[in-house]
Specification:
2 strands, 451 residues, 2% strand, Growth Hormone, Chain: A, globular
Length: 451
């Protein structure tokens, strides 16, 4: 029996899972990263390697997606992933606190915990997107994906300032307590949101089980990579996420070291940046409402390329802010602009992703595998970008470069990568358009095509 397409309520419930996921992840990437570099005075490469390990383990996303394809049920993967994420987050906070007394033991515990965080994010996130791809009508996939993505950013935007409020005055005990509270609350929200949403109408395992007539995991993954549209989009995802991750671990330490911001203030700054992302996403949705009068404003190519280019310019503003003045207002404005720019290109990327997830004969019953491929590209890029950027800062400082110069070099590299991604994004969407018309966003946010 073919499952019924999801309505708005089911989409919002899956969005709540992403909100819960984002609420935990933002503490790992922003707050704990900053505490290690500033409060514990550890080299920036240590949290860079930890975050890189959390992304590195997500190279297994295609396998997890394939597993949910074969089993025909996504819910167990989502709940199990959220449980692993919550446990890993608490462990990472405990490891950070322990590192204040014993660096080797604390870093070891944090390393194990970040791996667990990566497993949780990969398993839950891939299954949420795969469920959307299989249970939302083709015309509504882009709108659904954009809504769910915005709800994840909402999790970032809500969790960061709230956590920042309760972290001041800072102590390691407060860090553990705040992280544990956020993790438990997020897990419960996710479980309640996803419980029963898949229903009994999920694809029966018998219809998806690998048989001699259906390829195993390796063959299925190779088949997806051989699809030109899927491969081109994978490369764009890799480069754009490499650019995004190259700056992600630098902003908060930069704020603390250059402008003297406290952990609570920089955590709120992360919330401002993600609020900017939400603004950018909503702005693209508003622009799409004028598509009948000015079709160019609904072009995925425009927003993918323009968002990446604007992100590069915003990073240049962040790098320049430290040289311009000790007043942090220029820096804060540039961080917000970076968030807006990231949000614009994210909507275009997610819209394209959902449009391509079920497109073509190769995608039939393999939405999870294809989503896993793109998720693995994103995870690999994030892992490499964070490690490379933090090692670049440490290397520059090791060569006696001033603090401001060391960080500015890293921001400049990230800005250059964003400009390369802008070119690739334009080419990828244009190449997809040549096969199926030119993708545009309709007023409802769905993808349509123009002949």
């Amino acid at each position: 029996m073919t499952p019924e397409p999801f309505g708005r309520t089911s989409i919002v419930r899956l969005g709540l899972v992403q909100t819960a996921l984002g609420a935990i992840v933002v503490l790992m990437i922003s707050t704990i990263n900053r505490v290690m570099v500033v409060e514990l005075a550890l080299p920036a490469s240590i949290p860079g390697l930890l975050v890189g390990a959390h992304y590195g383990v997500q190279i297994l996303r295609p396998a997890w997606g394939y597993g949910s394809d074969i089993g025909g049920r996504r819910t167990p993967w989502i709940i199990g992933g959220m449980a692993a994420l919550a446990l890993g987050a608490v462990g990472a906070a405990c490891g950070t606190a322990l590192a204040a007394a014993s660096e080797p033991l604390g870093i070891a515990l944090a390393a194990i915990s970040f791996l667990l965080v990566g497993v949780g994010v990969g398993a839950a996130g891939t299954s949420v997107l795969a469920m959307l791809a299989t249970r939302v009508t083709p015309a509504g996939r882009a709108a659904a994906a954009s809504a769910v993505w915005m709800m994840m950013i909402l999790g970032f935007a809500l969790s960061a300032p709230l956590a920042g409020h309760f972290l001041d005055p800072f102590s390691q005990e407060r860090l553990i307590a705040v992280t544990a509270t956020v993790s438990v609350a997020a897990f419960l929200v996710a479980v309640l949101a996803v419980w029963g949403v898949e229903g009994c109408a999920a694809a029966p395992p018998a219809q998806r089980t690998a048989t001699p007539g259906k390829p195993g995991f390796t063959a299925a993954l190779r088949d997806q990579w051989n699809d030109p549209a899927a491969r081109g989009f994978t490369i764009f995802i890799f480069v754009s996420m490499l650019a995004l991750s190259a700056q992600e671990l630098l902003v908060e330490p930069f704020a603390g070291l250059v402008f003297g911001m406290t952990p609570g203030v920089t955590t709120k700054l992360a919330g401002l940046q993600h609020g900017g992302m939400l603004t950018g996403m909503l702005g693209v949705a508003a622009a799409a409402s004028s598509v009948t009068r000015w079709p160019i404003f609904g072009s995925l190519r425009l927003w993918a390329a323009g968002g990446c280019a604007a992100s590069g310019l915003s990073l240049a503003g962040i790098a320049a802010s430290g040289f311009l003045s000790a007043d942090p207002r220029v820096f804060v404005a540039a961080v917000f602009a970076l968030g807006v720019s990231n949000g614009a290109f994210a909507v275009a990327s997610i819209g394209s992703m959902m449009g391509l997830a079920g497109a073509g004969a190769r995608a039939a019953s393999r939405e999870g595998t294809r989503m896993g491929l793109w998720g693995a590209a994103q995870a690999l890029a994030f892992g490499l970008g964070g490690v490379f950027a933090t090692l670049l800062v440490d290397s520059a400082r090791g060569l006696s470069a001033p603090l401001l110069v060391a960080y500015s070099i890293a921001f400049a590299v990230a800005a250059t990568l964003f400009l390369v991604a802008a070119v690739l994004g334009s080419a990828v969407v244009r190449g997809h358009s040549s096969e199926a018309g030119s993708p545009i966003l309709t007023p409802s946010g769905a993808i349509s095509t123009r002949p």
